[in-house]
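# nightly structure sweep
# worker-07 picked up a monomer target from the shared queue
# config: single-sequence mode, recycle default, output format = structure tokens
# input follows
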Amino acid sequence: MGNLFDGLFLYEIILMLLGSVLFGVVIFLMVKNKELDKNHLMGIGLAIVMIAFPSIKSFSISDGIINIERDLEELKENPNDKDLEKSLEQDLGTIGNRPIGNAERLTTLSEANLELGKTEKASTLAKEALVKSPTNLQAAEVVNVIEVDKKIESFKSNPNDRKAKDELKAEIKKLKKIPTNSGRRTSHIAAGYEALGDDVMARAYIDSTRMYQPKHPSIKKYENKKPLVPQNDTIEKKDGADKN
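# output follows
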């Protein structure tokens, strides 16, 4: 029943409840009077319309959520597919600004908004999901991914600001503690380490991203980079140069 009402406006819920009451009253009168007349039929018809209208809306919301989940999964496999992004945008539009209260649905909507670059909306929805379900790891990931992005931008704007650097490190640490098998999480950790100049850790988390989401856009950036020179080899070359 919770999911049936979830996303419905108050007037739609009231309409459904009144329709149910009306239907029950008409049936009671029919049984009591032992007859079926025109008024009874009109009452039943009106009750069905009152119940059906919000019910159709409820099923439409459920279908919209399912379609959004499908779009998100397909975008993981084809991250540069513009048609999929358009489909996600359209499916998200079917939900509109409906009063969703279910934590899982809120999380799905937050992930969809994040995928479309609507970070403020994504953060708001994810935080609402966490209020309702504090152990929701996916919602926590969305919130922390957005925070890491913000701290990266802040640090890049002030690379000599010690506070900005420490704040970025703190947000990376928080994101690392969220145990989700997500390419989104690992790629943002990698981006954070790259901003800090730690190429070793950045590459390590890019490798994790490749495992979770092989076609993630951040992976290509590292494929053309020169491999890291092992520290021991660097020392040996330096020692050899000194001897010469």
